[in-house]
User: Fold this.
Amino acid sequence: MTRATHRARAPLPTLPAVPDARAGAGTAPTTGTGPATASGSTATGTGPVSGPVSGPVTGTGHAACHHGELLQGVFLDADGRRCAGLVTLPLAGPGSRADFVRRPGTPPEALTVVPADRGKAARAAGLAVAECAREAGLPPSGGQLRLTGDVPVGLGMGSSTSDVIATVRAVADAYGLRLAPAAVARLAVAAERASDPLMLDARPVLFAQREGRVLEVLGPALPPLAVVGCVLGGGAPVDTLALPVQEVTDTDVREYERLRVLLRRAIGSGDVRLLGRVATASARRAQHVLRHPEFETLTAIARRSGAAGVQIAHSGAVAGVLFDPAAPGGLRRRLHACRNALDAHGIPTTRTFTTKESPDGPARRRGDRPARPHTARRPSRLPAL
Assistant:
């Protein structure tokens, strides 16, 4: 990364996809040569900083969130090594914004964060200041980070990662730099130990969340999906640190690899039904840890309403019922039946959306859902149709 070329420092390696022998006949994997890069995946900068700056310099950064996972588990990398990985479901709309005011001449440890409870974002700011100052050839300095946004907390939608990535982009912007996704991923993992792939574009990737690298690009885009979003457990935040740790066996890894192959095939052929089967199987395996009491009700509603399957946040309470917009039977009628059934069973619906555009027109917001009780974090608000 330099001010002239904006290239990343020490990009993270991207390992090749699982060999064809595990993919099965006719399902050659798509493999990227590095983390996916697209417009919107870097901080919006104001250009290189030229000459000494004595006054404050402000940088901004944005990051989206996601709607939980389509697949999560333990997979094999190209060297046959076990690696935790996930495939997220993109969600346009909610996100985080960071504004970083760099104050030249102040010590780098003089960093303040508003709100003050964003510890992961604060760590990300410190790491980003050190790296960006070094690459820009400027002394590191302190400043103020201000975070705003509307990503619900504790539902498994990547709220902390959204804050962290927006922060890194804002700091880079304040130094006149743009960071490549690989560099953002490295800093995000260093700041929060595990990161969602929100620094990448919307292409479906299998992402090693604890290492910040792409294991496989599964295809150019997800097939069109209509999703009825909801929350399980009444929307109560999930304490991921309190979840039991389960030993992963060789049998488990073989099953995750089988689901990986099927998901690659579903994305490559645009098969929403197959994608729904994979997401449901992954969600069901996660119930060994999450134990959502409404899960069987959720899957039964999906079957009765003609859905392709369900997906959940593997570290939260958000869930979605997945529909194929092109399937016979009338999409509006199926979505309406699904929402009514969820409401009848006391499962709160949140937002109906698609991987392309809303099938029912613009979304309108409902009331706020309470955020984590012990924090002054932003309101947990999900737009709903």
